[in-house]
Structures are given as structure tokens and as C-alpha cells.
Amino acid sequence: MCLSTAESEYVALSGCVQEVIWVRRVLSFLGFEQDQPTVVYEDNEAAMALANNSCMTKRARFIDVRFHYVREMVADGQVKVVRCPTALMAADLFTKSLSLELIKRHWGVVSGLVEVELPQAVLVLVEFQTCA
After folding, report:
1. Quick one: DSSP state of residue 66?
2. Residue 81 burial (10 A CB sphere; 0-12, 13-18, 19+)
3. How many angstroms separate the first and last alpha carbons of the chain?
4. Share of the chain above pLDDT 70, in %
5. pTM assigned to the model
6. How distant, in Å, are the alpha carbons of 6, 26, 68, 103, 110 from that of 47?
7. Are 49 and 102 in contact (CB under 8 A)?
8. Is 15 left (phi over 0), alpha (psi -120 to 50) or beta?
9. How far apart are CA 35 and CA 32, in angstroms?
């Protein structure tokens, strides 16, 4: 059971990263080596902070160690966690109550009818302070 939104987003991010690593390994086995990190979009700033920062904070110490696999894969260069504004997060179609306009936009993206490119300003990793 998660005690905060940040923790639940981080747990979900961990599951996503596990699937990403599995797909990368299958592709590698098939002869398609991945030279660049796989980009995973996240709309929760706190979950991104936990993934990109190796420091153990007062709140992060209560998160089960197995979920910190995300940190290992980010540090190893296998995965890159990138900010995606909530308005552009197509996955919200399946998880949130949305306006009709957002439903139509996200449905177009999910069904492949509309191609969406994130603005360059969005593709900036958040930098966090290092441990002392």
C-alpha cells in the first residue's frame, strides 16, 4: 500500500521500467542492440526526483527497496525518465476522468490516428542536488 501519490507513481514507474528492460533484452537477443537509453515519460515531479536522485530522503526511506530498481537503470544509462506534462499524457485516457476534448485527443494518439511530438522544452531532465 502506498502512502502518497509520489510513492504510487514511483511504484508504477518501477513496473514500467521492468517491462522496458525486458523488451530491451528481448530485442538484444534478436540482434537489435539498443545504444541509447529508452525514454520513459513521467508527469509526476516527485517520482522523477526519486528516480533521478540517488540520495535517500526521509520520505524515500519508507519505499520498498525493490522499487529502487528504477534508480539503478537510470544510473546504468538503460532508461531516461523525462517530464511529460499531464495535458500530453495519453495514458490518462485509461486512468482519469477527462473532458471530451482530451478524450478525443488522447484517443487519436493511442489509436495511431494522430502523431504527437512533444515540444523540445518538455524533453529536459530535471536536475537534482547531489548527496552531501
Report:
1. G
2. buried
3. 31
4. 76
5. 0.70
6. 5, 27, 11, 25, 24
7. no
8. alpha
9. 9
| Helix, strand, or coil (residue 85) | coil
Per DSSP (E only), the strands in the chain are 38-42, 79-83
pLDDT in tens, 7-61: 778 888 888 999 999 999 999 999 999 899 998 888 888 788 778 776 656 666 5
Residues 6+ apart with CB under 8 A from 39: 79, 80, 82
Q: Does residue 55 contact residue 130 with C-beta atoms inside 8 Å?
A: yes
CA angle at 18 for the pair 17 and 23, rounded to the nearest 5°: 95
Which grid coordinates belong to 12? 508504477
Type of residue found at 49: A
Q: Is 79 helix (H, G, I), strand (E, B) or coil?
A: strand
Instruction: Specify which residues 38 forms β-bridges with.
Output: 79
* Neighbour tally for 68: CB within 10 Å: 17
**Residue 52 neighbours by CB under 8 Å, 6+ apart:** 71, 74, 81, 125, 126, 127, 128
